[in-house]
Design brief:
The chain is mainly beta. It is built from one helix and 14 strands; from the N terminus they run ββββββββαββββββ. Strands 1-2-5-6 form a four-stranded antiparallel sheet, with no helix packed on it. The longest helix is centred in the middle third of the chain and has 4 residues. The two termini are about 20 Å apart. Keywords: Calcium, Hydrolase, Metal-binding.
């Protein structure tokens, strides 16, 4: 199998890849500009905010849709570092890193961690939101996976803390209905950005 996910961009800054996930006959990826946070300023001033993200769904023959991430900042923002597609449930699952109803502020963003689980049908026509565990404003999800042999009913997740120089990672496990099986437990004073079952 050859490479069939490539992203072309007009961006002048580097791009950080997030959310690479597979759906039947399709791969979805999103990216944001490195060092820019979730938004960037155009030279015309602070009222010219545009998202610094874009998303693309690519089929093996290279066709794709772009522009999913180009939305106005009218409802605040979500920052995602993790997403999974469930073949079993035929749904997308997202654990956002950060969430706010306010305009993005780099300083305040360190305190916008979430305890949210978002789930969406493949066409995003049905979306649900649930809280899982205690909300710790400095902790946000960085990765998660469904635990094998649970019919995609149990998730193990990593949360990261980056607050005024403090860096730490935590692990937790919970069911899709929000029942916590393992509360947030510190696993190190470093940022772990991925979890896999081998």
């Amino acid at each position: 199998m050859g490479t069939w996910v490539s992203i072309r961009s007009q961006a002048t800054k580097g791009l950080e890849r997030h959310l690479l996930s597979a759906v039947p006959a399709c791969a979805v990826t999103s990216h944001r500009k490195v060092g820019e946070g979730p938004r960037f300023l155009l030279p015309t001033g602070p009222e010219s905010l545009l998202p610094a993200t874009a998303a693309r769904a690519s089929t093996p023959d290279g066709r794709g849709r772009t522009g999913w991430g180009i939305l106005p900042n009218v409802l605040g923002y979500l920052i995602h570092e993790s997403a999974c597609w469930s073949d079993t449930l035929q749904r997308w699952f997202f654990l956002p890193r950060r969430a706010s109803h306010e305009r993005y502020s780099e300083k305040e963003d360190e305190h916008k961690g979430t305890n949210l689980l978002l789930s969406a049908a493949q066409d995003f026509g049905d979306i649900s939101v649930r809280c899982v565990g205690e909300l710790v404003p400095t902790h946000g999800f960085s990765s998660f996976k469904f635990i094998p042999n649970t019919d995609d009913q149990i998730i193990v997740a990593l949360k990261s803390e980056e607050d005024t120089g403090i860096i730490a990672s935590y692990i937790m496990a919970f069911t899709l209905d929000g029942r916590v099986l393992l509360p947030e437990t510190k696993i190190g004073s470093v940022k772990y950005e991925g979890i896999e079952f081998i």
